[in-house]
C-alpha cells in the first residue's frame, strides 16, 4: 500500500498544469518544490476548467463530464475530499457565475399548501442538518459487467463518502404549510442551461423519488465543511440519502411534491433496470436505492508490487439504505473468508464504513475479494444480473482482483 | 449567516495571488470566472509558500507560522477541511522535500523491548485505525483573556475537527515486544531542522504525555482522506486525542517510552499553567488535556448584519477527554438559556459536535453565548482563570459576542 503524496503540492501542480495552457511559461509558477513524479501523467488530458482544481493525479478522466477516483486514491479516513471526488454531469454545468451570489440562488417549491420561491438565504433560516452519505453514480462498477454495456466503464471510483450540510426537506415543507394532497413523489429539477432547438423534456435533469424520502432528504449548500463546489451542484443540491447519484439534483431550481413521476426522459425511460440489450421502459424499476456493496482499496490492482509479510487489506462497505454490520475478506477468490474489522467513526447508515484485515502473505498470487453484510443480515450478492444500462453493479466477485506478492 | 463562496475558485485565486509574485502577468491565469471579492484582502499579506495552498480568504494570518480560521469560515458539516485548518508551528517546517518519499520517512522507537527504527512503509503493515479529534492550539482563545498575555491573540480559529488515519501507537508497541520497564510517558520528537549554534534542548519540539494515552494515540499519515499535508506534519504525525496541539508532534522522528518527561525547554518550562506574570516552572501543570468548550460560529461577530426573523444559531462543542452531552445557548448574555440540538454524525468523544438552535429575533442587540455540558455532567466554566501563557481559555462568557438584528 503506497499512499499518494502531498495533496497540497499536487493541487498546486494541477493548477500549474492547467495554467500551462493559458500562460506563456508556467515552469516558475510553483510555490513548492517540484514533485518527483508529474501530477498529470504525460499521456493524460488536462481536466477541463470547471474541474481544473481537482487532484488530477488521483483521478481517471473518461470524458470532460465523467471523471473517477482511482482505487488507490481512496484513503482510510472515511470522507472523500472534494478534490478527489468523482464527476458525472448529465449536462454541462451551468456558468460558474451562479456561485457568485450563493445566498441569492432561488428554488421554486411546488406541491405544498403555500407554494413559493425560496432563496438559499431563506432556506438557511429554516433549519440546519448534517448527514454523511455515499454519493455514487448509478453506473459505478459498469466496467465490471462482462457484457460491457454502453456508457462510461466506471470501475470503483464513481463514488465517495461526503458530509453534507443544509436544510432538511421536511423543514421546508413544514414551513410552507405541509404537503398538498396527493403528493407521492419528490421531484427535483436541475438548473442546467438546456440546449436550444430540442424538446427540453428529452434532455433536462429532472428526477422523482418516492415521498418516503421526505424524512431524510436534504437541500445541501455545504460539503465536507466548505461551500458546495460549483462542479458538485453548488449553490444548492438535493441530497437523497441511499439513492444513486442521478437522484441528487445539482443546481436545484425547482422542488415539487408531485402525484406522478416526472415525464422527463431521464426519469421516464432513462435510468431503468431493463433486460440486457433492451431499451428502457417506464414499467421497469427506476435506478433509486443503492445496494449493499463493498470493495478493497489497498492493496489494489494499481498499488504496485506487494512485499511479503503482514499486509493490511482495507476497503469500504456501504449498505444502501441500511447500515453495514460486517465485512468478510477472502484472499482465495471466495473459497475461504475471514471477518474484517470495521474501523473509524460510524457516520450513520447512509455513509460507508472502512474495514481492515491484517493478513500475513507469503510470495504468490492472491485473488482478493470482499463481501458485506447489512444489519438486516442480507449479504452482498456474488453477481449482479446484467441490465441494459449497466447500472448498480454490486457483485463482490466482479469487484475482486489479483495481487502478486514477492 | 452568509457562508463563504466556492472554495475551488478561492483556492484557484489564492494560487493566482501567490503566483502574482513570481509571474509577470497572472491576470489571465484564472481558469474560472473572477470572484466578486478578492481572495486576499488588499491589506492582507499573502501566505508564505508552504501554506500558499490554503484558502486565504477564510483565514487570519498573524505571522508566517500562526494562521487561524475565521469564525465565519467554520461550516456546519463537522470536519474542518485542510485548506482552512489553522497553522501553528513552533519551528519553521522542514523542507517540503520530506514528503517526496512519504513511505521512506523513518522514526526511531525507544523504550520498548525491541527498539528499532521503522519506516512509514513498515508502520503501514502494523495496523490501520481512524480517529476524529479536535486539533486545537494550546493558546486558542488567548485573545479573549482580559490581561492580554503575550503570544498570538488567537480567537476561536486555532482549532479544527480532523479525521486522522494511521497506526495505533499500541500496535507499534506490541510489534516491538511491549513497553520496557518503567515507561511512564510517551515522548515524541519532531523532525524540524534546529538552528545552529544554540542548545538544541532550548528549541527542539519534544513533548511528553502520560503513558495512559497509549490506548488512543495514533501515528497518522492521513488527514481527511488525503495524505497528511506537509504543513500539518506530514509524512507522519503523533496524534494524542484530547490533548492540545503542541502534544501532537509533527514530522515525528523519534517516539520514546520514557521514565521521565522530556527535559527540552518546550516541555520543562514551556506550556505550563503558571500564575499570571510568572515564568513557567516544571512543577506546574503541563498543557495536556483540553477542556470542555463551545462557541457560536453563526451568526457571528464577522457575519455582517442579521435580518430579523428566525435565525439558526449554530456552533461547535468539544468535551476534551469526554463526549459532549448537551449545549445551551443564551441570547441575553447568560441570563436565560435554551437547549440547542446536536446535529450530524457523532464522530466520537474526541471530535466536536455541531449544535443548532433556531431563535426568532426581533430588531435589537443580542449578546450571544453558549455553554456545553459533558457526559460526566460537568458544565463549561464561565471564566477560565488567567495564566501567564494565556493557555486553554475555555470560558463561555469571553467567547460570546453581540449581534445587531435589523
Task: Sum up the structure in keywords.
disordered N terminus, 406 residues, molybdenum (chains A, B), mainly beta, 21 strands, homodimer, Immunoglobulin-like, five-stranded mixed beta sheet, 30% strand, five-stranded antiparallel beta sheet, sulfite oxidase activity (chains A, B), Sulfite Oxidase, Chain A, domain 2
Unreliable sequence segments of chain A: 1-40
Number of strands of chain A: 21
Widest β-sheet, arrangement of strands of chain A: 5-4-13-8-9
Per the principal axes of the C-alpha atoms, what is the gross shape of chain A?
Answer: globular
CATH class category name of the largest domain in chain A = Alpha Beta
Average pLDDT confidence of chain A is 90
Instruction: Estimate percent helicity of chain A.
Output: under 10%
The CATH topology of the largest domain in chain A is: Sulfite Oxidase, Chain A, domain 2
What sequence of helices (H) and strands (E) makes up the elements of chain A? HEEEEEHEEHEHEEEEEHEEEEEEEE
- State the separation between the terminal residues of chain A, measured CA to CA: 14 Å
Please give the oligomerization state of what you see: homodimer
Major sheet of chain A, described briefly? Answer: 5 strands, mixed
The tally of structural domains of chain A comes to: 2
Superfamily (CATH H level) name of the largest domain in chain A: Oxidoreductase, molybdopterin-binding domain
- Class per helix and strand makeup of chain A: mainly beta
Keywords (chains A, B): Metal-binding, Molybdenum, Oxidoreductase, Signal
Cofactor (chains A, B): Mo-molybdopterin
Organism (chains A, B): Ramlibacter tataouinensis
Protein name (chains A, B): Sulfite oxidase
Amino acid at each position: 500500500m503506497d499512499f499518494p503524496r502531498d495533496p497540497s503540492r499536487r493541487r498546486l501542480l494541477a493548477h500549474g498544469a492547467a495554467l500551462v495552457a493559458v500562460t506563456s511559461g508556467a515552469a516558475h509558477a510553483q510555490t513548492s518544490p517540484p514533485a518527483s513524479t508529474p501530477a498529470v501523467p504525460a499521456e493524460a488530458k488536462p481536466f477541463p476548467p470547471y474541474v481544473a482544481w481537482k487532484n488530477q493525479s488521483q483521478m481517471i478522466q473518461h470524458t470532460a463530464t465523467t471523471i473517477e477516483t482511482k482505487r488507490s486514491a481512496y484513503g482510510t479516513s472515511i470522507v472523500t475530499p472534494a478534490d478527489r471526488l468523482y464527476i458525472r454531469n448529465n449536462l454541462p454545468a451551468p456558468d460558474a457565475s451562479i456561485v457568485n451570489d450563493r445566498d441569492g440562488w432561488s428554488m421554486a417549491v411546488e406541491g405544498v399548501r403555500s407554494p413559493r420561491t425560496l432563496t438559499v438565504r431563506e432556506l438557511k433560516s429554516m433549519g440546519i442538518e448534517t448527514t454523511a452519505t455515499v454519493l455514487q453514480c448509478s453506473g459505478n462498477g459498469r466496467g465490471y459487467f462482462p457484457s460491457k454495456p454502453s456508457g462510461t466503464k466506471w470501475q470503483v471510483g464513481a463514488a465517495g463518502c461526503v458530509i453534507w450540510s443544509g436544510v432538511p426537506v421536511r423543514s421546508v415543507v413544514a414551513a410552507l404549510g405541509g404537503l398538498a394532497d396527493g403528493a407521492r413523489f419528490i421531484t427535483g429539477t436541475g438548473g442546467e442551461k438546456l440546449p436550444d432547438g430540442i424538446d427540453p423534456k428529452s434532455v433536462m435533469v429532472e428526477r422523482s423519488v418516492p415521498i418516503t424520502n421526505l424524512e431524510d432528504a436534504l437541500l445541501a449548500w455545504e460539503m465536507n465543511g466548505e461551500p458546495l463546489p460549483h462542479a458538485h451542484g453548488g449553490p444548492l443540491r438535493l441530497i437523497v440519502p441511499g439513492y444513486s447519484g442521478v437522484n441528487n439534483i445539482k443546481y436545484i431550481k425547482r422542488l415539487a411534491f408531485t402525484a406522478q413521476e416526472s415525464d422527463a426522459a431521464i426519469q421516464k425511460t432513462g435510468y431503468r433496470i431493463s433486460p440486457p440489450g433492451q431499451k428502457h421502459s417506464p414499467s421497469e424499476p427506476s435506478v433509486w436505492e443503492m445496494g449493499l456493496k463493498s470493495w478493497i482499496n489497498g492493496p489494489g490492482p494499481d498499488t504496485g508490487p506487494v512485499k511479503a509479510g503482514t499486509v493490511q487489506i482495507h476497503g469500504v462497505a456501504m449498505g444502501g439504505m441500511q447500515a453495514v454490520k460486517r465485512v468478510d475478506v477472502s484472499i482465495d477468490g471466495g473459497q475461504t473468508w475471514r471477518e474484517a474489522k470495521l474501523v473509524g467513526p460510524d457516520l450513520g447508515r447512509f455513509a460507508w464504513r472502512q474495514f481492515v484485515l491484517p493478513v500475513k502473505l507469503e510470495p504468490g498470487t492472491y485473488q482478493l475479494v470482499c463481501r458485506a453484510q447489512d444489519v438486516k443480515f442480507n449479504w452482498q450478492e456474488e453477481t449482479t444480473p446484467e441490465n441494459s444500462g449497466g447500472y448498480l453493479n454490486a457483485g463482490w466477485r466482479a469487484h475482486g482482483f489479483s495481487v502478486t506478492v514477492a
